């Protein structure tokens, strides 16, 4: 019987060297910007108690009802591959006593998450987020600083045309009145809603607002809007956020239908959208979550954060052509001709690497033409050629690939020569 071919699971992908180099550039740029703004890195486990996400993300969310990788471990505990990062970081904040640190506590994280979604371009079952969280500061300046940080990131990447959508969904004081009005309106129009949204009226009516169903969308044209139901405190908070964004000339669109797929948010919510044709939902999003720390067993602590999808950002930056070319500027290729040159070339490659000079080459490969071809495909600026004559003389030919000029250099000073030329 033929063996079944082994391959990645549906919705999961290998990241190959070119893509990892690009991803590392995106991650490195993110780290530089968030660290400059005072964020420290936190990494929490991939696997957590299932109850953390059920309580944190919300029992009626899509994530909890149908997207989690949940299983029993060998001791019979229900554990879940983290579908998102905020709940785990809040757990860590509480568990590590970070409430006693000077507030605000500013954290960032980079890593993989798991959601059993229907895969398509930009939607995977394992994906990565670049995220920040700020704990212990309720002021609207925190929301604005966070949003501007994301905006600065896109700007630094030279990713033009990312749009910001913004809304306030109120808090425990004003949400009940809004919810009541919303449920009333949806119930009156129930027969016109898509079936899936009819069911949501009872379970999670706010989610109906960002329904993708065309039947439902028609009903939403006149739906009550959260902004008209905000209490005075939420109104003042939102006005504060907008004032800071305006002061920094950050463009945004108010989207009264914007709600998020996770239940922990209150007040400010936002999402960033890219320009890719048929872009799969948002590039990133977040908001304030002032009750989550308490919900998960900590002392009441205001909080704010966002997450950006690394794979979606990769697609967006690839399409926009803003990723830097791989840097081959400081690498030398050692070409060896024939058996006598084998050991000298082998040694030279190791000595160059020992001295911190990037060097490649295959000593067991014959044919100078093939080796030079490979070197020029790799885009290296220099090739060192060692043949029988050079071995006898204790030299190597240093070839400048930009103009094909060649110079004979003693092997003993080759490392120094390359270090000089590369300035390393
Ligand atoms: P989220 O909106 O669910 O928020 O995810 C954040 C970002 O992760 C999305 O905008 C998207 O770019 C990316 N993403 C989500 N699911 C997938 C997927 N299946 N495939 C590819 N990319 C995906 C959160 O998870 C919140 N924890 C963000 C946050 C941090 N809020 C406060 N702090």
Provide structural commentary.
- This protein is of the alpha+beta class.
- The protein has 3 domains: 17-170 and 230-320, Bira Bifunctional Protein, Domain 2 (BirA Bifunctional Protein, domain 2), CATH 3.30.930.10; 175-224, no CATH class; 331-422, Rossmann fold.
- Helix content is 38%, strand content 20%.
- It has helices spanning 17-36, 50-57, 62-67, 86-95, 140-156, 175-188, 195-203, 214-220, 232-247, 292-295, 310-320, 342-354, 368-378, 388-393, 414-422, and strands spanning 40-41, 47-49, 69-72, 78-81, 105-114, 126-135, 163-168, 253-254, 266-273, 284-288, 303-309, 331-336, 358-360, 382-386, 395-400, 406-410.
- The strands form 3 sheets. Strands 1-5-6-11-10-9-7-8 form an 8-stranded mixed beta sheet. The protein has a 5-stranded mixed beta sheet with strand order 13-12-14-15-16, with helices on both faces. Strands 2-4-3 form a 3-stranded antiparallel beta sheet.
- Helix 5 (140-156) packs parallel to helix 9 (232-247).
- The site of histidyl-adenosine monophosphate has 25 residues, from strand 6, strand 10, strand 11 and helix 11.
